[in-house]
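so my prof wants the structure for this chain in the tokens format not the other one, which i didnt know existed until like an hour ago. anyway here's the sequence
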Amino acid sequence: MYVLKKNLKPKQWFAIYTKSRSEAKVCERLMDAGYESFLPLITEMRQWSDRNKKVKTPLIKSYVFVKVKKKELAPIYAIPGVVAVLKHLGEPAIVTDVEINNLKIITNSSDATKALQPFNLKNGKPVQVIQGPFKGLIAVYLSNSGKHRVIVKVEALNSLTEITLPLSHIERITQ
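here's what i got, hopefully its the right format
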């Protein structure tokens, strides 16, 4: 007797590259189409000639994250504003659950958060935040000018975010 096995591959997170400044609309359209999607937003102070205002901006410009099975990626291209799915070695790049969780922790407490341009960390050690609003965050430690920072990296996008924390809020991860 033969038993047919169903495709039991779980859904995974993928990065969707969008048209410039259309991340929110693409995220909304993905949700309207029934996809689980995530757009990490941070609050920034913007200055105009007549006023200052807090505005929500994407943490990672031109990217939205969607959780689907790999075979479900093709219909996403038909959604207005979607340009491409981020690929690595010709295959859609998978964003890990840890990276998505890190982005969610960051966006829930964006007061001490700012986006950085990608650069190579040479002496960074893995750390975990053990207290405060970023508790549970896994990142790389960086000390500069007496300030203690953690750098959160999303490998698939080569994107970095810097958070300044008291030294007592982090501990080294031993492997």
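also thought this was worth mentioning. The CA atoms of residues 39 and 52 lie 24 Å apart.
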